[in-house]
Amino acid sequence: MNGLNEDVILEYLVENIDKDLIRAYPVKAVLMLDYCYKKGEQLPKDYFSGFTSKILNKQINTSTKMIKLDESDLIDCLFIESYGQLLPENAKALLPRAKTAKDYKAIIAISELSKNTGSIINPSSDLDSKLSHLARSYTESDLEQEIKKEYDQTRRLSIHINSKLRKPFNKELAEDLDSIKKEITKKFEAYSKYPYTPATARVLELLRESNRAIDTRLRAERSRIDEEYYNIKTQFENGVWDNEKRISKLIRLRPELKETREKYCTALCEEGGINCESLDIKIKETIERYEHIRDVKEEFEEVKRRISGYYEETENIFRMPIEHSSIQTLNTIYSDLKQSADKKFPDYIQGLQEKHRPGIEKIMLRIKQKYTQRVSYLIGQSARCRQKIDRSVFSWQTKKLNEELEKHNLELGAWSKCQIV
Known about the structure:
Blueprint (H helix, E strand, L loop, with lengths): L2 H11 L13 H10 L10 H10 L17 H12 L15 H17 L9 H39 L5 H22 L5 H41 L5 H23 L3 H50 L4 H19 L9 H40 L3 H21 L6
Helix pairs in contact: 1-2, 1-4, 2-3, 2-5, 3-6, 5-6, 6-8, 7-8, 8-9, 8-10, 9-10, 10-11, 10-12, 11-12, 12-13
């Protein structure tokens, strides 16, 4: 067909798309696209699949441009002759039914779809209905071929999976199975949306079987890991963690639990990993609680040891002449005793503090008594020295008494820095 005849056909029939598309598509393709697409719409590269998709989705232009042909008009005759050359013989039977530009374009599309689907054109049915039926048949036929190829690919995937499942379980195999499961899920979701046919049913069942095979292997692996987890869990829950030796055993369980958690992750078991983390937190808290109690008890025992030495230390201080340094030591001891008496230990000390408190109070009372006795003694001695000095008649005696009084006053001065009372 020459360019002039093509221009005549396009002039008569094209209503919705740009006529210069003849440069990109054959005349038949231009007419089919004009049947479905409006001006400004983006045309697909594969015009045939785009056309059938529009038909199946009922996106058909509604233009009904009437065509009145005059057999005496050369241009009309040229159109009829040129148009007829576009049609196969079995499609020409539809020409009497064409009244509008849309009808002529529908006949072109019907002839093309009939060629692709092998259907026989029945001139009695409505052109639009015939076109929808042929578009559906074409799509289903194309889908059937696609499904067949997909089934073959899925079959090969199934054989590949069965081969992998016979291998020893390790991280690399787990990653492969995870990747394959994701691929199966995507395929299953995609083919679940396809029209139901025996072919799609076979593909979906094959995907289910492959997925079940992977899950069976993973469940077996998880079951083995579960035994490790419950062994650790039972040891922890049935144990009494109240001494250093037992806590050491509990500490050794944590690395085992970490390995078990990693195995769960490898076996794609998120729940198992969460259970391991939860159990690890409980074990860690038990260890920390024991260590805290041990530290508090050690602190309490240290207080007891320190206070038990204070009795003899204070007795020694009172036996010796008192100086400012010894008073500072006594102040420090008394302050520590007071803080120890006021210190609150947790309940799990089990009343040890109350048993020890009377001993602290006894030492504090002893220090107060010694302090009172010593100060009273020094005051009395100072008073007697003054009286003797007042009655003294010998200078050597007065000097001796003054020296004694000075000694008492120095010690009283030191005692004035004492913070016991």
